[in-house]
């Protein structure tokens, strides 16, 4: 029986490179999922902590005859503390061994001007434009929008070469649109093969949004994300 044509050394090299790229992309997505889980843990843990503290504060204001209300609030406090304990155990599985949880406030679209200022100081001229009336966002959507801007600006700073960037935040009916464009290089950037963008797609899809990226008309690169204002937490 005749065997098929053997692969040339060039074909074998290309196959290995493709396999390496696919494996790197899978690792990037897995790492981004872990990062998302850690960040959302901190967001939710803060919310549960606030609810638990408020329940305790209200319980202490009850009159002696309000026994039924007192029992209900005690149940909320107990459930909240138990939930926090289990969440810390769960997120411990996703953290590097030996690290400790970070309970610092997560970044937010409310501080995107600070992010832009930091990137400017690092050497990339950036213009920020906000269209529409800002609204309160679900924590997951808020964090995702911030990370899209952060990743796109970081990539532009690292890989776009001498360039200028524009960040546009559009508050639409039922949707938040964030767009980050630069006039530098037109090819995908980040992690050598667009793995940063793959991580962003994972993050944005988790909250029910979508993201697109590619060459910018007139030169450069653009990343645009659409996030539902009533998206998943």
Describe it for me?
With 233 residues, the chain is an alpha+beta fold. It folds into 2 domains: 1-103; 109-228, 2-Layer Sandwich (Heat Shock Protein 90), CATH 3.30.565. The chain is built from 5 helices and 5 strands, in the order αααβαββαββ. A 5-stranded mixed beta sheet has the order 1-2-3-5-4, with helices on one face. Mean pLDDT is 81; it is low at 97-104 and 189-193.
Provide a quick synopsis of the model.
The chain folds into 2 domains: about 1-105; about 110-230, Heat Shock Protein 90. Helices cover about 50% and strands about 15% of the residues. The chain has helices at about 10-60, 65-90, 110-120, 140-160, 195-205, and strands at about 125-130, 165-170, 175-180, 210-215, 220-230.
Characteristics:
Heat Shock Protein 90; 5 helices; alpha+beta; 52% helix; 2 domains; 233 residues; 5 strands; 5-stranded mixed sheet
Secondary-structure map with pairings?
Blueprint: H1 9-59, H2 67-92, H3 112-122, E1 126-131, H4 139-159, E2 165-172, E3 175-182, H5 195-206, E4 210-215, E5 221-228
Parallel strand pairs: 1-2
Antiparallel strand pairs: 2-3, 3-5, 4-5
